[in-house]
Amino acid sequence: MPKKIDIFIRESKTKLTSLLENELDKKRAHRIEMLYLIKNEEEFYKRNLANRLGYSRTTIDEWLRRYEEGGLKGLLSISKSPGAPTKFPKKVRQGLLRKLNSKHSFRTYVDIQRYLRDRYELDLPYSTVHDYVRYQLKVDLKARVKQNASQ
């Protein structure tokens, strides 16, 4: 037998419509839409609601549990994984930045690789070093080499 939705939605239809229109995050918008469909009595069963929104019934159960326990704020809080720990600790980053900003800087990313291995015992792939220096630290070695050659 399908599970009927048995929950009281505290927010008004008007408030839910307003929240839905102003929400830019798709995940949060789906959660608000779920509340709206229940409040507007368009869906009565979790399975139908899940199919309509494109989620599993267990996801709908989880969202409803979050709403019951924490209200709208609890439902809309989406946790984010912290990700992998950095391969460039603060000490390494500071030393590398100092060296990059010094007069006798690196000519290639391979030079930086060697520096990190010799100085900090960090054996990192070329791609990691390149991406970190070029896109995280925003240092373009090619531009520096060209600039130094023209001086």
Main attributes?
151 residues; mainly alpha; 2 domains; 64% helix
Secondary-structure map:
Blueprint: H1 13-22, H2 26-39, H3 46-53, H4 57-76, H5 90-101, H6 109-120, H7 126-136, H8 141-150
Helix pairs in contact: 1-2, 2-4, 3-4, 6-7
Radius of gyration: 26 Å
Low-confidence stretches: none
Number of helices: 8
Strand content: under 5%
Shape: elongated
Structural class: mainly alpha
Helical percentage: 55-70%
Q: State the distance separating the first and last CA atoms.
A: 80 Å
Task: Please indicate the count of domains.
Answer: 2
Listing every helix as H and every strand as E from the N terminus to the C terminus, the arrangement reads HHHHHHHH
Query: Regarding quaternary structure, how should these chains be classified?
Result: single chain
Biggest sheet details: none
Task: Estimate the mean pLDDT confidence.
Answer: 90
E-strand count? 0
